[in-house]
Write a structure and sequence with these properties.
The chain is mainly alpha-helical and 194 residues long. It folds into two domains: 130 residues, no CATH class; 47 residues, no CATH class. The chain contains nine helices and four strands. Strands 1-2 form a two-stranded parallel sheet.
Length: 194
C-alpha cells in the first residue's frame, strides 16, 4: 500500500520478503515457523503467496513458512512468539500483548522502547521484549489525544468514528493541551451496539 512505499526502505514487497526470509533462515530455531498474513486490502496484483513459496524454497525453510490470506490477526498473535512488520498499525496489537516486534519503516510506534533494534537474525534467535510499562503510558497518551475507535471501511465503523471525531472537533481545547493541563475528560473506548 502507499504507506509501505512511502515510509519504508523497500521499493517492493519482494524486497521485504527477501530480507525477512533470509533473517528467518539464519536466526530462527529449526522447529520455529513463520506466518505471513496478507494485508486486509490485498488485491492480488502482487503474487505474494508465490513469492513467499519461492523464497522459502530458496532459503531451505519451505516446511516452516506459511501464508494466510484472511482471518483475524488476534488468533495468530495469541500463538506468536514475535512479529515483524514494515510499518503496519497492526503492530499496536503486538505491543499490547507484550510481544517482541521488529519494524522496518517509519511508524508512530517505532520507538526504541517498543521495537527491537536487533539484527533480524538475532531477533529470530532471541527477540527482546518491549518495555510494557512505557508502551502502556504511550498507548494511554494516544488514546486520550488522537486515536478514535472506528474505521473508514464500513458503515458501522464510520458511525462509530464520527460521533467521537465530531466531539473532538467541537472541543474548545486541543486534546494534547487538555491532557497536558489535566483538564481532559476521560475518553470512552466504547463500541456502538446496533
Amino acid at each position: 500500500d502507499a504507506s509501505f512505499q512511502m515510509h519504508s526502505p523497500f521499493k517492493t514487497m519482494s524486497e521485504f520478503l527477501t530480507v525477512v526470509m533470509e533473517g528467518f533462515a539464519r536466526g530462527a530455531a529449526p522447529h520455529h515457523h513463520i506466518v505471513f498474513k496478507a494485508h486486509p486490502l490485498e488485491d492480488g496484483r502482487v503474487p505474494v503467496a508465490h513469492e513467499i513459496k519461492r523464497l522459502a524454497k530458496l532459503h531451505g525453510v519451505e516446511g516452516r513458512v506459511h501464508f494466510v490470506r484472511g482471518g483475524k490477526l488476534a488468533a495468530l498473535l495469541n500463538g506468536a512468539r514475535s512479529a515483524v512488520t514494515v510499518n503496519s498499525t497492526a503492530a499496536q496489537q503486538v505491543l499490547w500483548r507484550g510481544l517482541p516486534i521488529k519494524t522496518f519503516g517509519a511508524a508512530v510506534y517505532a520507538k526504541p522502547e517498543f521495537v527491537s533494534t536487533q539484527s533480524l537474525a538475532d531477533f529470530f534467535t532471541l527477540p527482546t521484549r518491549p518495555d510494557s510499562k512505557a508502551y502502556r503510558d504511550y498507548r494511554h497518551y494516544l488514546l486520550e489525544t488522537s486515536q478514535v475507535p472506528g474505521g473508514f471501511y464500513s458503515a458501522k465503523g464510520r458511525r462509530e468514528l464520527l460521533r467521537q471525531v465530531v466531539d473532538m472537533m467541537l472541543q474548545a481545547e486541543d486534546p494534547y493541551d487538555a491532557l497536558t493541563a489535566g483538564t481532559a475528560a476521560p475518553r470512552q473506548q466504547l463500541r456502538l451496539v446496533t
